[in-house]
Amino acid sequence: MKAKDLMVGDYVYRPDCYTKVKEVRENGILELDYLRSLIGFNELEPIPLTPDILEKNDFRGDESGRWELLDRFTEDKLIILYEIANGFTLSTEGLDIGIQYVHELQHLFSLFGMDKEIVL
Q1: What is the largest CA-CA distance in the chain?
Q2: Burial level of 83, CB count in 10 A (0-12/13-18/19+)?
Q3: What is the pLDDT of residues 16-61, one digit of tens each?
Q4: Where are the beta strands (DSSP E) in 50-102?
Q5: Angle at CA 48, nearest 5°, toward 64 and 85?
Q6: In the chain, what percentage of residues exceed pLDDT 90?
Q7: CB-neighbour burial class of residue 68 (10 A; exposed 0-12, middle 13-18, buried 19+)
Q8: End-to-end CA distance of the chain, in Å?
Q9: pTM (2 d.p.)
Q10: Fewer CB near the terminus (10 Å): N or C of the chain?
């Protein structure tokens, strides 16, 4: 992973556990646990986005591979993803955006102005 791939609040996998990015630096990240030192990018891995993670985060899937996130109050469709061979895609207004990892879903939420905490 690289600095340009991450933002504060992203979840990543580091040896033996998931961690949340507290600060992105030139040569690594600081996580929420202040007792730990800088974690180099070479020690970090993205967390694959899976149907299980989508379900834990209020997406509803169907047999065609379509995943919808609905507004819990109005039932309006907020985000629609389609399952593809190497992850998911968001198709909107002629633009297809590939999403393979949890931190990319977090970025998508941010782009849509959604203050949604990811559940792993």
Answers
A1: 46
A2: middle
A3: 889 999 999 999 999 877 667 789 999 999 999 999 999 999 999 9
A4: 59-61, 66-70, 77-84, 87-92, 95-99
A5: 40
A6: 67
A7: middle
A8: 19
A9: 0.89
A10: C
